[in-house]
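sorry for the late reply, my laptop died twice this morning and i had to redo everyting from scratch. anyway the thing you sent over, i finally got around to it. pasting the sequence first so we're on the same page, its 522 residues, then the predicted structure underneath. double check i copied it right bc i was rushing
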Amino acid sequence: MKVVTAEQMRELDRGAASVGLTTEALMENAGRAVAEETRKLLGSVIGKHILVIVGLGNNGGDGLVAARYLEDWGAEVSLYLCSQRPSGDKNLALAQERDIAAIQSDQDGDYAGLGKLLSSSEVVIDAVLGTGRSRAIEGTFKEVLTRVAAARGEHPELFIIAVDMPSGLDSDTGAVDPSCPYVDATVTLAYPKLGLFNFPGAERAGKVIVADIGIPLALAKNINTELITEDWVKSVLPERPLDANKGSFGRVMVVAGSINYIGAAYLACMGAARAGAGLVTLSTAQSLQPILATKLTEVTYAPLPEAEVGIIASKAASVLEQWLPSYGVLLMGCGLGQNAQVVEFIKSTLFGLPQTSSPALVLDADVLNTLAQIPNWWQKLSQDAILTPHPGEMARLTGVSVDEIQWQRLEIARKVAMEWKKVIVLKGAYTVVAASDGRGKISQVANPGLASAGTGDVLTGVIAGLAAQGLPLFDAAACGVYLHGQAGEMVRREVGDAGMLAGDLLPALPKVIMALKQAEEA
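ok and here's the structure:
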């Protein structure tokens, strides 16, 4: 499923016109789709009091079409027109033919008529601006949207549906005007818009429903941003042949853990194992190995010399180097710490890898913090790699603020992926995955239960486990993000999102994989 910017959507509209799909036809399709989704959301529209607030341009036209269908299907529909519609507006005329009650804002002193409509309505459809917002909302539009929000405050049961985008939500950035309403559902047309997956806008969009309006799929073939969908993940999941052995599913070397972060090593190793890797080996400070062995019974070990208790020594790089040729993936960083000896160990390991026949890299946490201290590090690290920063780590890697990272998550991830020639997984709500060739994928999951210590270690392990099974790095990263997110959703359904632990995800991961494979076979 493609994700588009406002300009890309306008280009798609122009492309549709070039193949004979007129604006009028697309508006008819869009309005009917909004009406159909409204009916699905409500169960039935018969007898429902529905207020459609109509703005300028095509968004308002979509609302008028939706109003007509809803009236025909038995709803009691009212219109509130925020501005004059164009002379000869066909859709307004069709609504008037049905005697749908309408109030014109410039004839509604003190918005008294709007107040009465809001107090008597069960559903409000926001067809005011859609993707058309380009500046601060003022005047009538601001007054109307502010009064909708006030009505929702007085009557929380009032159900609000947005046409394409909640009015005042920037479709590219997710920025919101103060008058942008919090809606229960957004019926976005043709393709979801980028701003629906970035905060603060994502919080106001409610349930996002993508409605097909007839634009040919071929017109979007060159758009390189997509949602990570179940169908795509099913298509790339590694095969599990009956005659397999543990060598069939790859070998992961995990370099992780320190005296203060022992659990990170456990979570990363188990993430890789639960994703299906054939063999996982933990390389950690030698004094930690007996501790971890009491819990990690399914992995093998490659203990490393220490600078002090629980801290890997810089000279350990030469020891690790001896084991690496037999591994397909090196996961490095979770819980290593930033001791000076550890930092030297990280540098010696990464920059001492052979140019050929070295394992693919999955880099997290303290490896990322180390790289952030090295100017132009990517010019010294030519190996294929996946980097999995959270926003703070990404800020350190790029030298920009966390706020700027969060404001332009996809754009920044894509930019640095292309510059560094690496796959980037920018973690957080609606995790972004970017490839060096410009492709981007966005997770559909925003789960506060995953905002707890250790969940990122599990994700890094899952990605490494998939890469070990032969998936291309971009696919391994995006597939891992999906499995991790769905495991979180499974746990949330069972225990809620408060108190969810990183370890709770581990037994859920194979259940998610099993459900995907069963769905594929059905």
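The chain has two domains: 6-222, 230-237+248-521.
thats about all i looked at so far, will dig more tmrw
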